[in-house]
Amino acid sequence: MYIFLITFFLLYASMHFYLFLKAKAVFAFGPLVSIPLILFMAGMVFSPLTVYSLERQGLDSAARLTAYIGYTWMGVLFLFVSSSILIDLCRQTDLLRISPRISFFIPLLISMSIATYGYFEALDIRTEMVIVKTPKIPKSIGRLRVVQISDVHLGLIVREERLKSILNEVKRSEPDLLVSTGDMVDGQINSMTGLAELLREINPRYGKFAVTGNHEFYAGLENSLDFLKKAGFKVLRGETISVAGILNIAGVDDPAGKQFGLFAEVPEKRLLSTLPKGTFTLLLKHRPVVDKDARGLFDLQLSGHVHKGQIFPFSIITRLFYPVRAGEMNIIDGASLYVSRGSGTWGPPVRFLSPPEVTVIDLVSD
Questions:
Q1: What is the phi/psi pair of residue 103, to 5°?
Q2: Model-level pTM greater than 0.90?
Q3: Share of the chain above pLDDT 90, in %
Q4: Residue 180: which residues within 8 A CB-CB, separation 6 or more?
Q5: Residue 362 pairs with which residues in a beta bridge?
Q6: Is the CB of residue 295 less than 8 Å from the CB of residue 308?
């Protein structure tokens, strides 16, 4: 955890330093501009810590305002640095011959335009349809509809209106079963009045099941589990359950729990080996990683976590750590893996080339 935070703040500070050098080279400003600009950038670098501190003190309005400013700035800065580096590379190789001033304003315009578009893309909840044909679903059932939400990140930015939009898509799909594959909550959650009640309105005939994501542990596991329980979810932490004798569901904790000494460590192979082989087995797991020892013991794994990068070109970086493709069915050793792009947003309230989704999976008797 500490290594991640140190790495994050070093990289984020470096991006600000890059912007400062670019701006100074173009405008040649002196100390009267440099000092306020440096102070602003320092405030933005540490804005996530400021948000966390304000939340802890119960100053929700101030925390929300700081979060919107700080995280929106984070998204714009990432887009600016990405496009600016690309333009700099083109200039150095003589593919693009423009002045330093123009090379500053082009990425600025690009980043502002994409961030504006991305704000609305983040509100555009898509429904993704997936059909899985299997002989393990009884012919008498015909079709079992599982709806997946993931990475909603309820907190300061994703609130009632966003949740209502997500749940409207869920209701429209008329699920037999609703699952959440982690990160339902984000940060401090003691002020999320009414959100659990909105989720509780969804009552599929075969129930609602969830697993922990890394943010359930960051937000405080006890509070997160209490919220999910109030929302009507059965949280599976290294556990399995049989649904009406027609479906096995297994769920595992996110490994982030190890950092807090709260990880329910049950090997997936041992967990899944106890289940009857003739019944369709659904594995809920936050991170899109297939345990090599568990292959052949489940039929479909549903995951999330990576948001498909959320903001391109960050998706290129996430592919280095999680090479499976989000938003598509991946077949691995005869088992299926579906990775949701996520239903909400983390950090910047922006998405680019990664629209949020509610996933509808039809398990069809074949």
A1: -70, -15
A2: yes
A3: 81
A4: 148, 149, 150, 152, 208, 209, 210, 211, 228, 233
A5: 131, 145
A6: no
